[in-house]
Amino acid sequence: MWLEIRPQIESKYVQDLAADVQKDLESDRFFIVTEDDDLNYTNSAKRLRRFLLKKAQTKTKNVDSAAQALGISRQTYYTWLAETERATHTPQASVNPD
Length: 98
What we know:
This protein has a domain at about 40-98. Helices cover about 60% and strands about 0% of the residues. The chain is built from five helices and no strands. The protein has helices at about 1-5, 10-25, 40-60, 65-70, 75-90. Helix 3 crosses helix 5. The longest helix has 19 residues, at about 40-60. The radius of gyration is 18 Å and the shape is elongated.
């Protein structure tokens, strides 16, 4: 939505604010908590694992380093990955298994 209306915004303040928000969203410091009616622990844990896997996959070069960064074993990494793939019904890209 913002990209569509940005050319129409004349306020330098609003443009600068949007740029700052974009930087925060792209940074590693920003974590978005969404409101969700589903407070089920199991479902929340699955969403958190999916988030952590994606983060580890972008920050590491292989499964061993991803698992180590997450503080889990390779087997747990693969279990989380399989769980994520089943939940989304589409295969997720994973880091190289080297």
